[in-house]
Amino acid sequence: MPPSSGSVSGRSTAASAERLLNLLIALLDRESGYTRDQLREIVPGYHKAGSHDAFERMFERDKSHLRSLGYPVEEIPDDDPWASDAQLAPRYRVSRGSYQLPQVQFSAEESAVLAVAADAWNDAAQDRLARRALDKLEPALSHEAAPGRDVQPTVAVADPAFEPLLSAVLSHRTVRFDYVDRTGAYSRRTVQPWGVGSRFGAWYLAGWDEDRQAERTFRLSRIISEVAVTRDSFQPPEDFSMGGQLARMVYPPTRVRVTVYVRQGAAQLLRQIAAPITDEDPHLPEGFDAVLLAVPDTEGAAEHVCAAGPDARVATAAGADLGTQRAVAKAVERRLSEARKFQERVGGVAVAWGKQRRSGAAKASTEQHLARLLHIVRHVYSHQGAQLEETARHFGITDQELIADLQTLFVCGRPGHMPDQLIDASWDDGHIYLGNAQELSEPVRLTVPEASALLMGLQTLQALPGGNSDVVRSTMRKVATAADALPLADALAAPDQPAEPVPEDTELVSRVREAIANNRRIKIRYVVASRDEVTERLVDPVRIVSSDGHQYVRGWCLNAKGPRTFRADCILSCEDIGEAQAHPRMDSEMRTSLYPEKRRPVQAVLVTDRRGRWIVEHYHAKRAATVELPASDEPPITVTAGPGSSKGPKQLPEYVAAEVDFPTVEALCSLVTRHAGHVAVASPPEVVHSVEQWINNSLLTDTTHQ
After folding, report:
1. Engineering a disulfide at 511: which of 22, 133, 522, 574 sits with its beta carbon 3.0 to 4.6 angstroms away?
2. What is the rounded distance in angstroms from the CA atom of residue 366 to the CA atom of residue 9?
3. Prior bond to 636 cis, omega within 30?
4. pTM, whole model, 2 decimals?
5. Which of 205, 598, 132 minimizes the C-alpha distance to 372?
6. Any bridge partners for residue 76, and if so which?
7. What 3-state class would DSSP assign to 93?
């Protein structure tokens, strides 16, 4: 039987990690270093490169891997005094001390905060970086018990602009991108990016706008082109703090109050953010309730009404301000009309999916395996004689996987690879001992990307109720110190002074938090938004999770007999009904995504324009492809470029199709009308029909009432 592709891939990754470890040991072996040709001869694995060019490519990749893990591979001049200029070749080494972790120590409280921050990322790449950073910091962490936290922040980035902007912030490079502001105006921006961070469930970039010669803050979801990172460098202001920039952002004030009629027993999410109106209204339709919706602006009110579809309508003959009522109603009609026009263009469009690439998967797995090998060396050197089973649990792997890693270490060593030059590894009696690897056992400093991942998790924790503390701020400074990059604490981290007050927990969230602290079971009435219904649940709550500006309750649902996540603002009531029970499965489920990967009842192909491209990432699309749509009557988007923006960024595809799963058709319909004109459904036909019917019924409800 031929080997499976998975087993072949696993062996290939292990072989690559073994070659990289031998290369690292060789580069650490002597200060004078080795030439490329010498490394090709002495490092096992390079013989598999069939040609000189293949070896060159392999060697360049290997250098990149080692640098990504915090080992600065240096290129130094050849020191051979007898060689001619033609014979001289650069030599490579990793200088001793160049990679060592700076002197830093975390208290028990700081160590607990770091563990929470490392657990925050939903993004796979950033999660790997944060966990690798925590592994490196293990020698500096306190082993004293610290108070547990019932709040777990999660960091989810749905904006494709995030990674290039973060890279530009860390490298101090100017960027260019096309942007649409709150008024709907399009422009090209040239910006010195000082910092990135999240607040109120959205991601922002702060920096110097070169075209406007002023400091500006940009919302990442409004970037409608690729981010072009230029070669122009800059130095951010010494007094800049991204944490301070975010802290100065306040919740937009409520300026619009509008009366909305909602169908009885429906529009539960809209009811959650509105207040019931008990005064008699002669215009109230039969079968409807009146609620008062208070939001910052007209478009925000229209968005909430559109999301409820045919179950909500704006009262145009009642309300405190009829002018406002009619302005909101007009905005609702416009948005629904835009939704219908876009849906008509998209319905039935053909999608050529092509081959879906998993960029960076091999690189990530190779680096991850090598990082684990190095972490095993550091850990065992600090815990000689540790039990094999206990060590495997510490690393989250099986006993067999740990033994395979130890066998890999056993065949790695200094050039020559004689028995006394190899790493000494033994585990025969169930206890692990390592030797002859002192140079690999030293704590390694954080790389800038690793420190950044931890800092953003801490930044998110700071924005939660009770999270803005001296402990979080001191932890951020120490993380930046561990990367020998204190400016990171300004570009990504916290202000020296407390931020603007974060809204306190609601009474219901406080009750849930109390139930978690006291190990109590609760009975809740809960709005299931996807089905637009109210249910009653018995829950043993375990943790409160914060993500995208919302709070969620994670716990064991006795009705479903499994772990579940409940959005806090959809909980209508909470009652203590007794002592909670322990559920072993919850331990393994706590780190799963808020949106678990499982087959959903409704699978559809969405099409988004450039302004809706974040949806592809936010809803974890299985695959995506560029599509062409029939011509529109609307004029094309014109991007105004500033005087210094002659060379613009690469334009994104105007329209992208994405295959996405949804819990119900109603949830998908609500998405289409909420983001009217920026997203539509291409297939399957029965779902397209449901969406079209939803839009038409919403328009009919809106226009017949005016």
Report:
1. 574
2. 10
3. no
4. 0.66
5. 132
6. 91
7. strand
